[in-house]
Amino acid sequence: MKFGKTLLLTASVFILGFNTSCESTGKKDGGTNGGSTEQAADMVGPGFLKTDYEPLAKWLDERFEIDYKHMTPALIFDQVPLNDIFYETSNLPTDAPAFNFSSAAISRRDLLKKIAQHWKLKMTFSNDQSGTPTAVKVEG
Question: What is the value of pTM for the model shown?
Answer without folding.
Answer: 0.68
